[in-house]
Amino acid sequence: MKSVKEQSLESKILKRLENNPVCTELVNYLFADEELQEMQDYANNVSIKRLGYNDHGPVHMRQVAANAIKMLNILQLSGIQTSLEKEEIGTFEDSMCAVIIAGLMHDLGMMIGRQGHEDMSVILAKPIIERTLMKIFPDNLHKRTIIKSLAIEAIIGHMSSRKIHSVEAGIILIADGCDMTKGRARIPMAINTTPKVGDIHKYSANAINRIGIHHGDRKPIRIDIEMSAEVGFFQIEEVLLTKIDSSPAKEYVELYAGVSGEEPKCYL
User: Fold this and answer.
1) What is the C-alpha to C-alpha distance for residues 113 and 111, in angstroms, rounded to an integer?
2) Phi–psi pair at 95, nearest 5 degrees
């Protein structure tokens, strides 16, 4: 059974897609996919209980998808074309489909382990991507081909370890980095009390109170981060900024972060 948080994020995603019937059909199909749900749940079990990492399961993957959808919508409203649009090989809708798929499947490789999980995510996601696209676009091989390829680029590139080239994959990279609030570290903080390598990720994420994604003043997308303690700067500087720096969408992002009650620092 899905958690309240999962259901809330699904409602948020559907709200952000209310003017896009094809993408709405796509997400509803994926939300109802029992195998995908089982894989997301098991990935989270491995991440939290076996490895002691933050959430990498159904809530995280839905949050990344929600972040990416919002960013892509902001770019469209700002008159910025996606890579598929610029190359005149696909539509904004095609780009959105790829981003949704990547957001909901990018961490499936955590079912196997942390090392190289982005490569494993592609292997595990591929059959689901193919059956999903066959359901949504049964008579359009072109759309199935470009959306699958773009989704795989976004999945395999979400750790900044591999060079990516599309705006769409770059958006997933940033959207993933933006899911770092204290809720993501709540369970690991509660069940893993013995100090171990990697704890800084839990403690720094636990200091992040809020992340806002809005229309920017200087650039299309503005990311605002509020934290309770300075340890949160680790999460921003070592995780989020690394992802933004590697992203083909970097030029469209401005970033502000600071401790609550203090003047925020402008990073970008």
Assistant:
1) 6
2) -60, -45
CA angle 37, 244, 155 (to 5 degrees): 30
Specify the higher pLDDT residue, 187 or 168: 168
pTM: 0.92
Q: Specify the amino acid at residue 53.
A: Y
Distances from the Cα of 70 to the Cαs of 96, 209, 250, in angstroms?
10, 20, 16
| Domains of the chain, residue spans | 4-177, 182-266
Token pair in block for residue 243: 């992802």
Would you state the torsion angle of the CA atoms of residues 9, 12, 14, 17, taken in this order, to the nearest 10 degrees? -130
pLDDT at 206: 83
Q: How confident is the model at residue 169 (pLDDT cuts 50, 70, 90)?
A: very high
Paired with 208 in beta bridges are 227
CA dist 231 and 205 (Å) reads 8
pLDDT in tens, 37-84: 999 999 999 999 998 888 899 999 999 999 999 999 999 999 999 999
Q: What is the mean pLDDT of residues 23-38?
A: 98
β-pair partners for 213: 223
Residues 154/163, Cβ–Cβ less than 8 Å: no
Measure the CA–CA gap between 268 and 259, rounded to whole angstroms. 17
The pair of three-digit structure tokens given for residue 213, joined into one six-digit string: 């994604």
Question: Would you tell me how many other CB atoms lie within 10 Å of the CB of residue 95?
Answer: 25
What's the rounded Cα separation, in Å, for the pair 245 and 202?
A: 22
Whats the size of the chain, residue-wise?
268
